[in-house]
Amino acid sequence: MKKIVLMANKEVGYKVAKYLIDNGDSIVALFLSDVDKDTDKKIALVASPCEPIIFSGTRLHDNNENIKLIPEFDFIITVYWPFLLKKDILKLPNEGTINFHPALLPHNRGWYPHVFSIINGSPAGVTLHSIDKGIDTGKIWAQKEVEILSDDTSDSLYFRLQKEILKLFKDVWPNICTGNIRQTAQDSSMAVYNSINDIDKYNEILLDEMYSGRDIINLLRSRVFGNTSFSYFIDDNGDKINVKLSLSKQVNK
Q1: H or E stretch including 76?
Q2: Cβ contact 119:113 at 8 Å
Q3: Running DSSP on this structure, what letter comes out for residue 230?
Q4: Is the predicted pLDDT of residue 57 greater than 90, yes or no?
Q5: How confident is the model at residue 63 (pLDDT cuts 50, 70, 90)?
Q6: DSSP string spanning 55-105?
Q7: For all residues of the chain together, what is the average pLDDT?
Q8: Three-state DSSP class for 41?
Q9: What pTM value is reported for the model?
């Protein structure tokens, strides 16, 4: 049994919390992101048998007294966590840290890795890695490449990556706990970092720009998420025209 400080976000954060509880581990402290209140409630409920100390994610930065309230523990696990951690927090766990990143690091560090993989053809995948002072730069516990399908949009790839990273965590967690996984350093010469604003320049389709068929389809499908499309062009009257690509696979009989 490991004592965990869990920083959980989204549905995959709930599933990680449930897996840890079912596995017999103890969540001694739980940080919730405040991004989705309903999901936060689900995570808190599933972790409740451990009676964890529960904090708001924003208070992690605003109130250092929170750190002193956390009892001795083995791991910090961050699942789709939207906040950076301070250095003094990283020193607290006895055995290490694990961050969930939906990219095949060192490719696409930072934001929206699934979108950039569709746009530029960089490998897609999932990585469990240690947290250090950089952004997605820590040593790798485990990773898996995930194929980008020809009919993927950003949302279909995004949710498939969530499933794959959860499966990867379940596969390797027992070996992490027993010390049977050796971490590997990232090859920084191959690293690419995307900021939260880098994606915006791919929203506008320039009518007088030359695109290959592959490039324009990849641009359009990368900017579709569910019923929302971020792609647009400006017509000759100066009006903004939204564009949404719809993809469907024809199965050969």
Answers
A1: strand 75-79
A2: no
A3: -
A4: no
A5: very low
A6: EETTHHHH-THHHHHS---SEEEEES--SPPPHHHHT--SSEEEEEESS-T
A7: 93
A8: helix
A9: 0.92
CA atoms lying within 13 Å on the CB side of residue 211:
16
* Two structure tokens written together for 142: 């485990």
Cα 60–chain centre separation: 19
Question: Is position 101 annotated as part of the catalytic site?
Answer: yes
84 pLDDT band, cuts 50/70/90, is confident
Give me the half-sphere count of Cα atoms (radius 13 Å) on the Cβ side of residue 200: 3
DSSP letter, residue 204: B
Per the residue annotation, which of 61, 101, 107, 129 is the catalytic one? 101
Please report how the helices 10-23 and 154-177 are oriented relative to each other, as an axis angle in degrees rounded to 10. Answer: 20
| Of residues 131, 27, 33, the one with CA closest to residue 80 | 33
CA dist., res. 139 & res. 117, Å (int): 21
Tokens of 44: 């808190």
Cα-flanking dihedrals φ and ψ of residue 203, to 5°? -80, -35
Dist. CA 34–CA 26, nearest whole Å: 22
pLDDT of residue 67: 67
Distances (CA, A) of 18 to 10, 30, 47, 109: 13, 13, 7, 27
Nearest one of 4, 48, 54 to 26, comparing CA atoms: 4
Residue 117 structure tokens: 């993989």
